[in-house]
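For practice. Supply one:
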Amino acid sequence: MGQHRGESRARGISRGPLIVLGLVVVIAAGVVGWFQLRDRITDQGEAAAGACVEGESVLAVAADPDIAPQLQTLADHFTETAPVIRDQCVSVTVTAVASDTVRDALSAGPDGPWDAAALGPRPALWIPSSSHSVKQLSATGVISGEARPVATSPVVLAVRTAFANAPGTPAIDWKDLPSLQTGRDSLATLGLPGWGSLGMALPVGPGAESTETAVEAVAAAVTGSPTGPVTEEQARSAPVTSALTGLALGYEASSGTKPATTREALTALAEQGDPATSGIHAVAATEQQVYQALRAAPGADITTSMPKGPTPVADHPAAVLAGPSVDETQSRAAAQFAEFVRRPDQAQVLADAGFRVEGLARPDDTALAFPGFESTLVPADAAAAAELMQVIRNPITPRTSTVLLDVSSSMGEREGTATRLANTTAALAAHVDRSPDSSNLGLWEYSTTLDGSRPYTTVVATGPLSAGGFTEGTRRQALDARLAKATPATGSSTYTSLEAAYKSAVDGYSPGRTNSVLLVTDGANDDSVARADLLSAIAAASSTSKPVRIDVVTIGENSDLNTLQALADRTGGSLEKVASSDGAALPTAISKLLS
């Protein structure tokens, strides 16, 4: 029997929605599972990193002693953050070592030797006193990237408060310091009657970088380009060498102690009594060094004075180093630590120690003014800086000397790339250029027949280097020009010429300074004067009230060596024997005997 459509019956559920629902559930479960797996992998990676799966790495930092204590505090803070770099746990250790000491060690390049016993572990990060040191290493390849400052402090003069408050002190320029040091300008001109000349300490031992930067400021001001950098040519110029010689000799002549470092000089300045009778009136130091000196000796009668002109600045740059001992982890750690130190919440440690940090307040427990300054001195490169400090360390004492130059035919022989005579005149000209204006110098040449019946001629009469009246300008310029024109002649008449030059030197004796004749020769005497006659003539011409020494530089083999040595010994002079005119031996010998 058939059924009608309207009759009720059970109906089945459609499979399509069930399939869709199942797929949604499966996809959702997969997504959840994927996220769980990702989180598990991340957690495992973090756990592995936290466990330092690549071990530990110690970042060694070499820092100037002025900033090292604060950097060690910040290093401890950094280490407490448990930094992990390239799966290595990083910690930081700081070694305090003088900036110039590290600079000298690094000058050998990335592969150069390193004395860990004296300097601590070889660093991956170096924070010296200033970019002055970093710039001197720019050509060595030891600095990786740009060295940016972490804190600054201007180089000023640490002085007694009476000096700082004198009416004329605010007008002092860097270029004024040499004349104040030598007494050409008395401190009375500043409003300090009875103080005499300036006693500015010039410590040059390790840790005296402030002296180096102050010397550059003086040199830059003298050249008329006060912003710097001082070039090597400027460093060798007569105005600069004369000014720095005056600065150095004035310090040598001052009474009292000769401290080797800036810290020692600051201590001496603070401990001295009446400034009018003290040997030290000023010390080139950073503002921060003065602040720390006052903290160490509360109530000390010292403050700061900032000379006019561009100011040298100790900017304490963070220099990441290159070399076999600095791997990627060390390099990254050095950069990260430097950035950590610059963060305001960390840099407050530096500001509290007397450094200048942009945006942070100065210490409020001191009377130091922390004044602003208009411009910063650009540091010199290594060659120029070395020339400047050579003058400070080895100043040429003003003296009266006549150079007696052998221009016989043998001086025309080639040694190296030039003739023996050309090498000799170049060495003499270099010394003339370095000599102070107050030196009296002259030049004689001799051969067999240079001036009619005489084997010698007075090329430039002995007198002050600064004196004018010459075709070339000053005596200094005349000496340079005549030395450049010297040419070999004939044979050698050493004995006759030396006797004449010595008698002339005695007649023209200058009291109060060393008087000498410097003989520069390369061979035996050719004239008829006997050894005994020469010794007798020199003895007869000598005078105890007018002592003139005979100094000798002899080049190569010389059969007259015994005679020349006897003359030097009897007149209080010295003899220097060099094997060749080519190289450093001859200039060194000449400088030694004329300084």
Q: What stands out?
A: DSSP finds 21 helices and 19 strands in the chain. The radius of gyration is 36 Å.
